[in-house]
Write a structure and sequence with these properties.
Layout (H helix, E strand, L loop, with lengths): L15 E5 L4 H13 L5 E4 L8 H6 L4 H4 L3 E3 L2 H4 L5 E5 L9 E3 L1 H13 L4 E5 L8 H5 L3 E3 L12 H15 L18 H17 L9 H14 L4 H15 L11
Parallel strand pairs: 1-2, 1-6, 2-3, 4-6, 4-7, 5-7
Length: 259
């Protein structure tokens, strides 16, 4: 369907779309095209297999240069989501994690409310071959799954972005903003959460809790999922880091209250 009208004011904004280790430039381009159809303009790439900028992506984008010109490239998923406070992870496969799971329609309503309340949000999409890893999904608050034929639930990257983008756009800006009364604090962003996780996990490793080593990845993912479900604020993260410090310091040590 042709429908480009450059005389009209474009709809822009929305959650960040984060493609983790995309393989083909064409898929990045068609994903960008799908994004601009629905007013999504923040495209982030994590370790794209081919070089970036990519001529094949530009050709496949069919004029969605507004999205491609703003692309940011990151080495890790953690870096790509560092400034976000809410992250959704797309997956078609059940995972052994206890996470809130929503459809694209429900995700769109939540994203509208969260963004309306001033929270920065993003949606993770995995590589074409195998999707997101468990470690990537553990970084998210919520799993987003598209209801599909259980005998054939394979979507390509642009199709997945298109479905999610359509529901986002359909939800419209009429969705009332969620009222989050957090007093003087705000939701913790990914950078603050990851700093806390790394702090906690380092202390647990040094004290022999993450043992045996082959079980450590599952144990750390479970801990991260637990804290993600809590919806921590920035103040709560600082408090938890203080708790960890207090638990590992010399029991006879006392801080000077004047500091």
């Amino acid at each position: 369907m042709a429908g480009t009208d450059r005389s009209r004011e474009p709809v822009l904004g929305g959650p960040a779309i984060i493609l983790v280790e995309p393989q083909l430039g064409e898929n990045i381009g068609t994903a960008a095209r799908a994004m601009l159809n629905f007013g999504l303009t923040d495209l982030r790439l994590v370790k794209p297999r081919d070089a970036w900028p990519n001529e094949r992506a530009i050709g496949a984008a069919s004029g969605a240069t507004l999205v491609l010109d703003r692309v940011r490239v990151f080495e890790t998923t953690e870096a790509a989501i560092a400034g976000l406070t809410r992250v959704f992870a797309t997956t078609a496969r059940p995972r052994d994690m206890r996470k809130d799971t929503v459809t694209p329609a429900e995700a769109a309503l939540r994203l509208r409310a969260l963004l309306g309340a001033g929270e920065a949000c993003g949606i993770l999409f995995g590589a074409e071959r195998a999707g997101l890893t468990n470690d990537d999904i553990a970084l998210a608050d919520t799993v987003l799954t598209v209801p599909l034929n259980p005998a054939f639930s394979s979507l390509n990257l642009a199709q997945a972005v298109l479905l999610v983008g359509y529901e986002w756009f359909k939800a419209s800006d009429a969705t009332p903003a969620a009222a989050f009364d957090m007093g003087a604090t705000r939701p913790a962003n990914r950078e603050e959460l990851l700093g806390f996780f790394e702090h906690l996990e380092q202390e647990l490793r040094e004290r022999g809790f993450l043992y045996p080593p082959h079980k450590a990845p599952v144990m750390t993912r479970n801990l991260r999922n637990l804290f993600h479900r809590a919806g921590l604020t920035e103040q709560e993260v600082r408090t938890l880091r203080g708790v960890v410090k207090a638990l590992v310091r010399d029991p006879h040590y006392r801080e000077d209250p004047s500091n």
